[in-house]
């Protein structure tokens, strides 16, 4: 049995893994200013049980996901022989690592991409409706308060912060503001989920949303679509380094890849 909320344990394991190979990189990931250039999922697989646990049978396959927005970290991950790193200990459970997958042909949650390619493809696509799956609990912070709602301006603000920190060039504030005004929440099917971390609790939303891009043309529309496509790699909202805010964007903004 593994506690359903275990993203903090995945985070600790990951930083320890990086530190074993590159202490300076681990220090930047842990203490660097601004947004962090990575996300981590919680363990996927098994079955959720009552009382906040995840049941996994011995020998059963499970997986977790690591994303990177930083060239140095990406190079480290792509070159990592995960099978030789030793067991993955998480809250009393031990996992035997398998092969690292980086291609959509191996796993639908795996892909390598550049910022430039994301933005270019978003300019080619003219989708007015963009479907998003929030695959893990997602919330936003406003001061001391949490906002567990997929408000378009909060979604784009979260993604714009990652793009500004790690992308090739800053976004034009005027175009970003236009994109934020034009993006609207259309249809959704959501539920809330409670995550119980060791010292606090967070309520997040998860499920499917459809956003409508209305009133923005050209570059502003391209920025909105590009940012939503970035969500696959950057995550959305708060605590994306501990399993929250994992996102699957619309197939219209990505090259199809199936497991």
Could you explain how this protein is built, in words?
The protein is of the alpha+beta class and 259 residues long. The chain folds into two domains: 94 residues; 139 residues, Alpha-Beta Plaits (2-Layer Sandwich). The protein is 32% helix and 25% strand. It is built from seven helices and 13 strands. The strands form five sheets. The protein has a four-stranded antiparallel beta sheet. It has a three-stranded antiparallel beta sheet with strand order 1-4-3, with no helix packed on it. A two-stranded antiparallel ribbon has the order 2-5. α6 crosses α7. The chain is globular, with a radius of gyration of 18 Å. 35% of the residues are buried.
Key words describing this protein structure:
four-stranded antiparallel sheet; 2 domains; 259 residues; disordered C terminus; three-stranded antiparallel sheet; alpha+beta; single chain; 7 helices; 32% helix; 13 strands; Alpha-Beta Plaits
Q: Which sheet architecture does the biggest sheet show?
A: 4 strands, antiparallel
Tally of discrete structural domains: 2
Query: Which class of the largest domain in CATH terms?
Result: Alpha Beta
What structural class should be given to the helix and strand makeup?
A: alpha+beta
The value of Rg in angstroms is: 18 Å
N-end to C-end Cα span: 27 Å
- Write out the strand line-up for the largest beta sheet, numbering strands in chain order: 11-12-8-13
CATH topology of the largest domain: Alpha-Beta Plaits
Mean pLDDT: 89
Helix fraction, binned, reads 25-40%
Helix-strand topology string: EHHEEEEHEEHEEEHHEEHE
User: Count the helices. How many?
Assistant: 7
Instruction: Count the E strands.
Output: 13
CATH architectural designation of the largest domain: 2-Layer Sandwich
Q: How much beta, percentage-wise? A: 25-35%
Label the overall shape.
globular
Low-confidence stretches: 251-259
């Amino acid at each position: 049995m593994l506690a359903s909320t275990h993203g903090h344990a995945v985070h600790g394991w990951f930083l320890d893994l990086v530190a074993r190979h590159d202490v300076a990189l681990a220090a930047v990931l842990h203490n660097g200013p601004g947004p962090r250039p990575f996300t981590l999922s919680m363990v996927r697989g098994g079955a959720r049980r009552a009382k906040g646990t995840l049941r996994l049978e011995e020998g059963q396959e499970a997986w977790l996901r690591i994303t990177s927005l930083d060239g140095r970290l990406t190079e480290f991950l792509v070159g990592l022989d995960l099978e030789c790193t030793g067991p993955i200990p998480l809250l009393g459970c031990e996992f035997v690592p398998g092969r690292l997958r980086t291609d959509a042909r191996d796993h639908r949650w795996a892909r390598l991409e550049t910022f430039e390619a994301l933005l270019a493809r978003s300019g080619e696509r003219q989708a007015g409706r963009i479907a998003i799956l929030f695959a893990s609990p997602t919330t936003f912070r406003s001061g001391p308060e949490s906002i567990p709602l997929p408000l378009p301006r909060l979604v784009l603000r979260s993604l714009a912060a990652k793009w500004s920190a790690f992308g090739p060039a800053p976004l034009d504030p005027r175009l970003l503001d236009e994109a934020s005004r034009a993006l609207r929440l259309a249809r959704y099917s959501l539920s809330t989920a409670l995550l119980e971390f060791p010292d606090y609790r967070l309520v997040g939303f998860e499920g499917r949303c459809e956003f409508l891009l209305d009133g923005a043309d050209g570059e502003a529309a391209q920025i909105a679509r590009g940012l939503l496509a970035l969500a696959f790699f950057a995550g959305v909202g708060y605590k994306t380094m501990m399993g929250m805010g994992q996102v699957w964007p619309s197939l219209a903004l990505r090259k199809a890849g199936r497991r």
